[in-house]
Amino acid sequence: MATKVRLQRFGRKGYAFYQIVVADSRAPRDGRFIERVGSYNPNTNPATIDLNFDRALYWLQVGAQPTDTTRSILSREGVLLKKHLLEGVKKGAFDEAAAETKFQAWLKNKQVDAQEQKDKEHEAAKAASTARLEAEKEVNKANAQKVAKKKAEQNAAAQQQAAETPAETTAE
């Protein structure tokens, strides 16, 4: 039986989320499956991936073929790298401890990169917020100047009116 690791669609129209399943390649996309190994929600930022790492690795080792999207998800989570390292151990290229060390180094590097990306996005959002605040302050300052100018004109007109009114009463 040819097995595939693929996505099974759930959700409503325009808001899809997926389960990562192992299924017979002849089964329909949303039909019968052998095992559910995770979920994928592309609607969040960043996309939420919940994966049973060990079971996904097991299915890849016994010959299940991932689809293109599932391959990228598994690669992102490190399942394909772990499979590659374990195949190197089987061939005798290095021992299991070295493979685990390489995988942990990759995982740590990935976490550092993810944290840097989050920090960069946070700083960009903060800078954008500051820029919006400064622009709003400039607009408020311009509006305050217009209001002050208008009040000054009204006060000048009122003073001129007041100065003309006593002059007319004295002329009568």
For the structure shown, list the relevant keywords.
alpha+beta, five-stranded mixed sheet, 172 residues
Protein model, in words:
The chain has 172 residues and is of the alpha+beta class. It has a domain of 91 residues: Ribosomal protein S16 (S16 Ribosomal Protein, Chain: A). The protein has four helices and five strands, in the order ββββαβααα. A five-stranded mixed β-sheet has the order 4-3-2-1-5. α1 packs across α3 and α3 packs antiparallel against α4. It is elongated. 13% of the residues are buried. The model has no long low-confidence stretch (mean pLDDT 91).
What is the N-to-C succession of helices and strands?
EEEEHEHHH
Q: What's the overall geometry?
A: elongated
- Uncertain stretches of 5 or more adjacent residues: none
CATH superfamily of the domain at 3-93: Ribosomal protein S16
Rounded to an integer in angstroms, the radius of gyration calculated over CA atoms is 34 Å
